[in-house]
Specification:
rod-shaped; 73% helix; 4 helices; mainly alpha
Length: 139
């Protein structure tokens, strides 16, 4: 059998595998395979093209990773801002509720004990006067 290379051109471990294939008869079967001609060895150009393709895909993945990282940071910043805004609204609402509750208590106290009605005419304007009238109508 004629080989396209000499046995001194291949490393020792490959030579050992070749000898084992030859001694078992598997080499003859492989070489007689009709599909053997359809395969070709990898050329340096094929390897360079594969390396270039891998480098290009790695660069694309890195760029996509950078974009996703920036988007993630932006979303975190928006969530943080939303949380801070919600906290501010919640505090303002709580403060407004406390103020309204104090006014309600003050008006109830004035209505329930008219002898201690100490609100001056300047304080009973607008909103407070309207609330007082609503309370008086209910009774």
């Amino acid at each position: 059998m004629t080989l396209p290379f000499t046995m001194t051109e291949i490393p020792a471990d490959e030579h050992h595998r070749y000898a084992k294939l030859e001694s078992t008869g598997a080499l003859k079967t492989l070489l007689q395979n009709p599909d053997l001609g359809a395969t070709r060895p990898l050329l340096d150009e094929d390897i360079r093209n594969a390396i270039d393709s891998l480098k290009a895909s790695t660069a694309a993945i890195q760029k996509q990773t950078e974009i996703l990282t920036l988007q993630c940071e932006d979303l975190k910043r928006q969530l943080r801002n939303d949380k801070e805004s919600e906290l501010g609204r919640s505090r303002a609402l709580d403060q407004l509720k406390r103020r309204h509750e104090l006014e309600r208590q003050h008006i109830n106290a004035a209505v329930l004990s008219p002898s201690r009605f100490t609100l001056g005419p300047a304080l009973l304007t607008g909103y407070r006067l309207m609330i007082l009238r609503m309370i008086l109508r209910r009774e």
